[in-house]
């Protein structure tokens, strides 16, 4: 089929085909009549000129009212059947006005006005058609074409001329076959889902060492633990050619001794007391993570990882790099974020952690930490392995939604840690955001400053 735009064949009531494209051929290689809104306008112009029906400016108003319906399928359906009530009323108006005025010059004057306005209207409709054609093409590229329960021709035309929607792409939880399929290689050059994606190895490595956060403020701690446990399988070639584990301090819990496995209790040591948080364990008001400002900020989590990723070995050539990226949508784009994260998780020596706002992402809750497990090229979405396993399973979040969720502010993104909490009174240590202005005073006392959220990339570089 040869078309200039997109060819859409529609059956008329008498069985004859017509199409909304400048030039087209049907499947039987027969030329089909080129019909557009401009063509309809020209036909009506010739008809009205021959019958001398346009007499006064009243006619123009009538046609303006009718032209508002040109883009609806019901109007053209009635036009083809010849029984449209609007046309009957219009003919009556034309006849009466023609008898009363009889001014031929006025007829010509207003006919010219109508023809001009009608052409402008038709041009706008053609521009709209082109805009919708481009929107349709983009929709198909994203593998999410609009769906409809109606299959008749009027629904098809309505879809083409309807305004583009801004509905965000939905989340997909890892609870069904469609979600599992995204872990497979679905790139255009692949064999379409016969092997695991190059981006999916982190999902299995992180899943082997991830535990549910032990309380609702330990999401950052649980995420750091999952990252460290996943790196215990990493092997780096040393100077003498022997494959060994890089410089990585994986705690050995007494419960699991002698096997190294980090937990949300044994991950804290002298280094973390000096650089991250002073007191852990003991519950709210005692555990500093369960004390205002609650949880761990991006600088704190970066320091927590650094305490376990040492790079002072003389036997292995290489070092750990921890990069914190704050998502500022005035300087960082979705494309740049996607590029950074997907390349990091494709690297077996890298891991990614994200700090995002649940509500903005489409979930219930506020600020949250979790590791990234995979990336799906076809759907341009990231798999977040939620450490709040009691609340949500792993979820595929579209890249643009994850970007928006990270481009939010943490009201205490940086503060005077770890010593700042020593200045709080016993009463203040139990206060929460529900205490309103009193809690705001505590944040000021701690030196809290609002900062953007974002992502952290951990990489071994040799």
Runs with pLDDT <50, length 5+?
1-45, 51-84, 99-126, 132-164
Biggest sheet: strands, sense, closure? 7 strands, antiparallel
Q: Into which percent range does the helicity of residues fall?
A: 25-40%
- Please count the beta strands (DSSP E, at least 2 residues each): 13
Global morphology: globular
Beta-strand content bin: 5-15%
Q: What string, H for helix and E for strand, traces the elements in order?
A: EEHHHHHHEHHHEEHHEHEHEEEHEHEE
What order do the strands of the largest sheet run in, or round the barrel if closed?
3-10-9-8-7-13-6
Instruction: Let me know the average pLDDT.
Output: 75
- Helix and strand composition category: alpha+beta
Span between termini: 57 Å
Query: Using only CA atoms, what is the Rg?
Result: 33 Å
Helix segment tally:
15
Write up this protein.
- The chain has helices spanning 37-51, 57-67, 73-81, 85-101, 104-141, 153-161, 177-181, 201-207, 219-231, 270-275, 298-306, 334-346, 358-361, 399-406, 437-445; strands at 9-11, 17-19, 172-173, 236-237, 243-244, 319-326, 350-357, 367-376, 381-384, 395-398, 409-414, 449-452, 454-461.
- A hairpin with a 4-residue loop joins strand 8 (367-376) and strand 9.
- A 7-stranded antiparallel β-sheet has the order 3-10-9-8-7-13-6, sandwiched between helices.
- Helix 2 (57-67) runs antiparallel to helix 4 (85-101).
- The chain is 37% helix and 14% strand.
- Residues 1-45, 51-84, 99-126 and 132-164 have low confidence and may be disordered.
- The protein has 462 residues and is of the alpha+beta class.
């Amino acid at each position: 089929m040869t078309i200039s735009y997109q060819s859409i064949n529609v059956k008329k009531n008498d069985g004859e085909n017509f199409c909304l494209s400048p030039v087209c051929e049907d499947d039987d290689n027969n030329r089909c009549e080129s019909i557009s809104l401009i063509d309809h306008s020209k036909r009506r112009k010739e008809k009205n000129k021959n019958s001398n029906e346009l007499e006064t400016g009243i006619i123009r108003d009538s046609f303006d009212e009718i032209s508002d319906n040109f883009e609806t399928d019901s109007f053209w359906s009635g036009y083809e059947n010849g029984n449209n009530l609007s046309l009957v009323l219009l003919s009556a108006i034309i006849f009466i006005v023609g008898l009363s005025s009889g001014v031929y010059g006025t007829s010509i004057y207003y006919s010219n006005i109508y023809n001009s306005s009608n052409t402008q209207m038709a041009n706008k409709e053609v521009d709209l058609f082109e805009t919708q054609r481009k929107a349709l093409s983009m929709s198909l590229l994203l593998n999410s074409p609009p769906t409809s329960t109606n299959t008749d021709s009027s629904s098809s035309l309505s879809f083409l001329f309807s305004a583009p929607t801004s509905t965000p792409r939905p989340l997909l939880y890892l609870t069904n076959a469609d979600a599992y399929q995204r872990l497979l290689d679905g790139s255009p050059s692949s064999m379409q889902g016969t092997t695991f994606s190059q981006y999916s190895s982190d999902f299995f490595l992180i899943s082997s060492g991830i535990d549910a956060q032990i309380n609702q403020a330990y999401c950052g701690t649980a995420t750091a633990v999952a990252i460290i446990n996943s790196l215990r399988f990493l092997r780096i070639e040393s100077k003498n050619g022997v494959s060994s584990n890089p410089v990585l301090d994986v705690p050995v819990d007494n419960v699991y001794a002698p096997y190294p496995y980090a937990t949300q209790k044994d991950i804290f040591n002298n280094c973390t007391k000096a650089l991250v948080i002073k007191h852990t364990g003991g519950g709210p008001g005692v555990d500093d993570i369960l004390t205002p400002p609650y949880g761990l900020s991006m600088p704190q989590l970066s320091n927590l990882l650094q305490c376990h990723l040492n790079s002072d070995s003389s036997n292995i050539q290489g070092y750990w790099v921890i990069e914190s990226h704050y998502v500022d949508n005035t300087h960082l784009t979705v494309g740049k974020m996607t590029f950074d994260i997907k390349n990091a998780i494709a690297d077996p020596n890298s891991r990614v952690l994200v700090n995002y706002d649940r509500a903005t992402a489409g979930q219930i809750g506020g600020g949250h930490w979790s590791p990234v497990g995979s990336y799906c090229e076809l759907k341009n979405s990231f798999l977040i392995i939620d450490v709040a396993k009691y609340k949500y399973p792993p979820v595929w979040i579209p890249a643009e939604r994850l970007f928006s969720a990270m481009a939010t502010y943490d009201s205490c993104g940086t503060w005077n840690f770890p010593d700042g909490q020593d200045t709080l009174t016993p009463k203040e240590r139990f206060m929460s955001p529900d205490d309103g202005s009193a809690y705001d005073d505590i944040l000021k006392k701690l030196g809290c400053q609002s900062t953007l959220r974002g992502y952290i990339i951990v990489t071994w570089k040799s």
